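Ticket #4471: structure export looks truncated?
Reporter: QA, pipeline team
Priority: medium

Steps to reproduce: submit the single chain below to the structure queue and open the exported record.
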Amino acid sequence: MKRTSIVLLSIMMLFSMFIAACGNSNNNAGNNAPASGNTDTNTNQPVAEEPAKDAEKVTLRVFSTFGGTDAARDAFQAVIDEFTASHPNVTIENDTMSANDDGFRTKVNTDMTSGNEPDLLFYFIGADAEGFVNAGKVVPLNEILDANADWKNGFIPDALELARQADGNIYAAPLTGFYEGLFVNKKIFEDNGLELPTDWTKLTTAVKALAAKDIIPLSVPFDQSHYLIEHTILSAAGPAGQDKGLAEGIEPNWEKAYAAMKELYELGAFPKDAATIDLNMTGNYYSEGLAAMTIEGSWAIGGWSDDTRANTTVIPFPTVPGGAGSGNDIVGGFGSGFYLSKATYDDAAKKDTAIELLKHLTSPNSIKTIASANGGTPAADVEVTGLQQVQLDGFAMTAKADSISAPVDSKVAPETFSDLRASVQQVVTGKKTPTEAIESAKKVEDANKN
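Actual output as written to the record:
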């Protein structure tokens, strides 16, 4: 089965389970049971295990992107606090950065190459991880999963399957999945008599009308243009063309993605200061109602104002002119997870505690806590509660999608994706052609491969 088909099947199954759970919320005690350990029969809550009185003190550092304004920041800290409450001999350094801060990639790469790797690392699965995976900085989890059946069986099978690296091993334990899309403020569209931008003509019509009224049509930056690139390439090249990456040659439809960005720029789609702002600022524009649309992931919803969340829906990015996409293709899946450092695994004083913490952070209860906070698709069979309508729309969009693809930055080297980002401003302002942009990225990919 193709990877995208597996993801689609997985997300559709999750969506079906979510709908069933909403209709039978009184019958979910099994979903709330701990993955292992004892349970208080009166409260159905896990009972803290009494640590040995002479337990050695252990300090573990956990690095993740649950920082800044991330919707699951407090939930993640609560999950850590649960562990330390039952393991008073353990101190956890909760080292976090925002995923919207590109510095987190630099920090991870520096830590992993300088001998300062965290004990547990929450990071991307795929091309981003290949460097430290191939260098043996993290350990395969296959045998640990097989030795802990309760933990392994707590995941839905497809979540683990999608966590495999190219060598066939599972190095990262998944937590929540995600979906990305075109988020639209329905109220702004309704107030301006505009249809939802479900195709390119409706999108460009909306852009022209909104720009004429000094409303930012599409709030995205040029430097941190991750999501704009992902969606225009998927829309232009289709799932098969996007999945090819650039290793074996240039996919011609990738050029159409950059041509589409230029068309949107010339229509006034982007913020006037798109060249100097970052994702945090473009997110603020959308949150404050100054922009009608943005391209983001499910994790961004929790950071918006109450009014914006209440008025937002999410739809697939429409097919660009001449593109191979169906207009119903989306970016999503289980693209991140927790890695266990090889140095920690080899440290007898830390190994067992680190594995217990890893199991706790990715237990069904923890997955439910995080998914309920950030609206991500859970990697376990649990009922996600307290979702906003926009998040329900996201689950529905995912379930109905023709295809679900991993982000394009997982298909090319990090250096290549940086080059693709650097070309956005040059192309839209006419300093580089779409063809030159893709040829430049191809050279970087080839150099990195060599």
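Status: closed, not a bug. The export was complete when the record was re-opened. Leaving a note from the reviewer for reference: The two ends are 31 Å apart (CA to CA).
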